[in-house]
Amino acid sequence: MAEKTTTAAAAGAPRLLDLTIDNITPNTIAINSQSSNARLTYLMSRLVTHLHDFARETRLSNEEWMAAIGFLIGCGQICSDVRNEFILLSDVLGLSLLVDNINHPKPPVGTEGSVLGPFHTHDAPVLPNGSSMTSDPAGEPMLAICTVKDTHGNPISGVKIDIWETDSSGHYDVQHTDRDEPSERCVMESDDQGRFWFQGLKPVSYPIPHNGPVGKLLQMLNRHCWRPAHVHFMFSKDGWDKLITALYLRGDPYETSDAVFGVKQSLIIDLDKVDKETADKYGVQEGSWLLKHDFVLTTQEETEKLKDQLAVEALQKLGLRMKLVDHLPVPDLD
Ligand code: BEZ
Ligand code: FE
């Protein structure tokens, strides 16, 4: 490492001179390590380590470096209030699913998480159970009857459930330039028996937005841009781990090649058809599609315990001497 300076202002900072392929990394880490925020210091240190190793391992060319900068500029330029190319990039790189898996581990009975994606909005109407959330006459009607329970099988009442899906053309409402109000989305609340039910559409597979830099990247990688048919759900209640998930239709052509890696076997479902009795009870057409599913939430305490345990195991495997602060690892310097 370069020699340390002696000025009081820069005490602890390295002398940044004559930096080479071999010593730029520890010096960059050192200059970034003057904050009292141990977590920020650790994040920056690992980021710089991996970024520099990437350049060294690939012998990154100037042209490739510039192309990457141009790519990121392009991502920024296409972002708007209703489009986030950076989340999309994180999704197609598998980072979104990885971060969700790390932060929301589940015991075997817990409903697994899936990718949030860029199409959740905060303006969905709060609807009473049984309502229809669709205004698309072209779609195939689907009744969904669901429950939300804890890991012991007890119903959880008063859970806020955000639900959203595309219309029958495979577009979310926000992708229509003439959108004047939300459609194919709503917010419901589980009743005293943990039940919620609503009318939507049989989901269809659809391409993620691919007219921007991320779409171009997929094309260069010879990857398709499709997601298998699904409905999104987000469950929130104080004291419970927020669950962001989706249910996927079995047999979809993209079931095992989702462009954003969101499918898990436990989230693949079969639809049924509504019989006469159910049709009369729920006020829907006999023969329409029926989705039945029981979701299982974990408490915040259960999740944090599991997350801590998995973090300790993973860090031990990496041979790192770490401690957890607020459930996040930082170097253990004591
Ligand atoms: C979605 O399912 O809405 C989605 C997820 C990731 C990227 C694009 C769309
Ligand atoms: Fe989606």
UniProtKB/TrEMBL annotation:
Instruction: List, for all copies, the residue spans of the domain called Intradiol ring-cleavage dioxygenases.
Output: 132-296
Organism superkingdom:
Eukaryota
Sorted keywords for this record are: Dioxygenase, Iron, Metal-binding, Oxidoreductase
- Set out the biological process GO terms recorded for this chain's protein: catechol-containing compound metabolic process
Query: What region holds the Catechol dioxygenase N-terminal domain?
Result: 37-107
- Cofactors: Fe(3+)
The GO terms describing molecular function are: catechol 1,2-dioxygenase activity; ferric iron binding
Family annotation (CDD domains): 1_2-HQD (cd03461)
- What's the family? Belongs to the intradiol ring-cleavage dioxygenase family.
PANTHER family registered for this protein in UniProt: DIOXYGENASE, PUTATIVE (AFU_ORTHOLOGUE AFUA_2G02910)-RELATED, INTRADIOL RING-CLEAVAGE DIOXYGENASES DOMAIN-CONTAINING PROTEIN-RELATED
Q: What is this protein called?
A: Intradiol ring-cleavage dioxygenase
